[in-house]
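User: Structure tokens for both sequences below?

Assistant:
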Amino acid sequence: MHFLLRHPDYISEKPSGETFETDDDSSFKFKIHQTYDLDTTSDNYYRKLPQSIIAVYFWMLGRWDQLENWNFWPITVLSIIASILLVFIMQNMLIAFMTGVFDETKSNVKQAVLKFRADLIAEYEAIEKPFGNTRGNPR
């Protein structure tokens, strides 16, 4: 993006400044015209490489407008570090939670298998002899 949009006039790309007019019955008529200065990073985020990397990074998280309003480098650095640490901490919490669940399940699995076997044996012993077998239990 940096190499593509650093000089938008090279690729015949020019942002359009839209003009807005009010349409009401008051006697005050005014126009709002938006102009772009493509040589500043406030209007062209891709003018400088570090700013373009930050802009593309924040695409993943959604555009953070508070970074534009402050235009103060410690806030940008803090936002990047906080977003990376937040993802790192949340992933570690998920891993710890899943490890705890796995260990708890692993400790209870032997008891569950033995209970299943005991239930199966009890059910088998409770079955009556089919077809009128009178010889006794061959087991």
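Moving on to the next sequence.
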Amino acid sequence: MRRIFVAGIGTNVGKTVVSAVLVEALKADYFKP
């Protein structure tokens, strides 16, 4: 199983957008703690 961790320092850098694109492209599940 492949795991991808999206991180960024600061707000408004696009982490959620990048995560959404990756989830859709990889047909994966998304977990936000």
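User: Anything stand out in the second?

Assistant: The chain has a mean pLDDT of 87.
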